[in-house]
Task: inverse folding
């Protein structure tokens, strides 16, 4: 039972007891229950805000992982041998696939079954060198 539900239950019990809200004790209990109700609502708002922050942080972390992957692969100059990796945004599972899947433009997550699509027509900005056009040397010839 959530805190807000417990406070509502306590208010119902107090009403069932027939507390005299005109008496000193009745006024005190009424004010205490109202304060508890306000605290419960504040806690509920804080939890909702925290969940939103966690979701945002997860999204930023995923984006940062992609950037790190792109930067470090470019620096290391590692060959992938036609094997690619991505992380499913739905379940977080690492997915490995080859060029034939990449050419299809989509891969299905083996863990959750979500279909991930790839847009190969868009230039990634040259972070990995795979989508850049060949550079020309001073003589105008491609390298």
Result:
């Amino acid at each position: 039972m959530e805190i807000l539900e417990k406070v509502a239950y306590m208010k119902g019990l107090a009403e069932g007891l027939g507390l005299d809200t005109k008496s000193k004790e009745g006024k005190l209990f009424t004010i205490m229950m109202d304060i508890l109700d306000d605290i419960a609502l504040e806690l509920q708002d804080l939890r909702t805000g925290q969940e939103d922050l966690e979701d945002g942080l997860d999204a930023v972390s995923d984006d940062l992982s992609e950037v790190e992957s792109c930067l470090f692969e470019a620096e290391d100059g590692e060959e992938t041998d036609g094997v690619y990796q991505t992380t499913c945004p739905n379940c977080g599972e690492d997915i490995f696939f080859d060029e034939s899947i990449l050419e299809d433009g989509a891969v299905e997550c083996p863990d959750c079954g979500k279909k991930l699509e790839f847009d190969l027509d868009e230039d990634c900005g040259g972070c990995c060198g795979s989508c850049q056009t060949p550079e020309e040397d001073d003589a105008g010839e491609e390298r």
The CA atoms of residues 7 and 36 lie 7 Å apart. Residues 74-79, 132-137 have pLDDT under 50 and may be disordered.
